[in-house]
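Protein chain data
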Amino acid sequence: MRATNRLSAKGAAALAPGKYADGAGLWLIKNEQARGKWVLRVTVYGRRREMGLGAFPAVSLAEARRKADAARAVVREGLDPIKEREKAKREAARNLHFLNDIARDCFEARKAELKGDGAAGRWFSPLAIHVLPKLGKMPVADIDQTDIRDCLKPLWHTKASVAEKALGRLTLCLRHAAALGLVVDLQATEKARALLGKSRHKIENIPSVPWRDVPTFYETLANGSITHLALRLLILTGVRSAPLRFLHDSQIDGDVWTIPAEAMKGRKDATSDFRVPLAPEALAIVEAARRHARDGFLFPSQRKGVISDATMSRMMERRGMAERPHGFRSSLRDWLAEATDAPHEVAETMLGHVVGGSVERAYRRTDFLEQRRVLLARWAKHVTGQSGQVVKMVRGKP
C-alpha cells in the first residue's frame, strides 16, 4: 500500500464514519459519512501534536494535502506549525483595523485638546463626510497614497480648505494607528499630496463692510429683535459669533464681559479667559437682550438652545449682501489701522488674537483692558454715527 496519497477524492466521500490515513501524518476523521475533518499529526520538540486542517468536505483532499505540506515545511525549520499559525492569525487580526475604528479612537484620544471636548463635531466632520464613506471600511494597513488621492481628488481643486483639513486629520489617524503598533505607511498622505498636485482653488476672504459704511448698516438694525441685537453687539465688540451666540448673563460683570477660555478660538489655556470692555452703547444692547433671555442666555433661538451660526448670516443674505457677520471683525481691524494709531499688540488683542511667542506672553501680564476700553468706546461712537476723531494711543501703557 502506498505510504502517501492513499486516499482519493471520490473514495473519501464514500467512506463510512471512522479514521483514515492519507499518509505522512495526514488523517481524515469522519464522524458521519457526509462530514468530517482533516487532521495532521506531527512531532515537534519530541512531542506529538495534532493540527486541524479544516472541515471535510469544505476543505478538499487536494487542499488538505497542500496545508499538510506547508505545515511539514514549518516542522523542518524546527518550529511548531500550530503556534506559528496562531501567531500569524494574531498578527493579521492586529493589522486588520478598519479606518472607521482608528478614526474614532483617534478622535476620542484628542477630545481633551478640542473646545467643548469636540462636541461641535468640527474636528471629525472632514473625516466623516469626505473620507470614511470611501475608505472607512478598509484596513488601515492597506491604505496607500492612491487610495487617498482618489478619495480627495473631487475636492482638491474646488474645496481646498476642506480637503486640507481632511488630509491633516487622516495624517493624525495614520500616526495614531502606528502608535497602536499597526503597520501603516506614515508617508501616504504626503505622497497623496504629491500625486494631487498644487490646488487651483483660490481661497477668498469673507467679505466685510468697509468701516466707513458700518454706521449706515448699524442704523438699519433697529427692530429690537434677537437677530438685530446680536448683530449690533457683534459689531460693537468685534468678537466671533460663537461666544456671542452663547453669551450668558453670568458672564457680564458691570461693564466687562468675560468670555470663558474654552469658548475662545486658539486659547487652550484654561486660565486665559478673555475680557471684553463694554461701551455704554454695548451695555444698552445687553440690557435690551435681557428681555429676550432664556435660561440666562441672552440670544435664545425660538425653540431651544441659542440662535444658530447661520441666523445672522441669513439675515444679511436676504438683504442681498455679500458680506457676512464675521467680516465685521475685519471692519474693526481696518478702522484700528486707518483711524487710530493703536499699537499692533493692542489692536490684535481687541480681536482676541494671541500675540507674541510663549516667552513674550509669559512676561506680558496685561490684556490691555483699559486701552481697549477707550478704543471700543470710540468705535461705538463711530458705529452709532457720531463723529469720532483719530484716537492717539500711548504705546506700552495699559
Remarks:
- The first strand starts at residue 18 and ends at 23.
- The chain has three domains: 9-95, 99-196, 211-383.
- Residues 9-95 form a domain with the Double Stranded RNA Binding Domain fold (CATH 3.30.160.390).
- The CA atoms of residues 273 and 281 lie 23 Å apart.
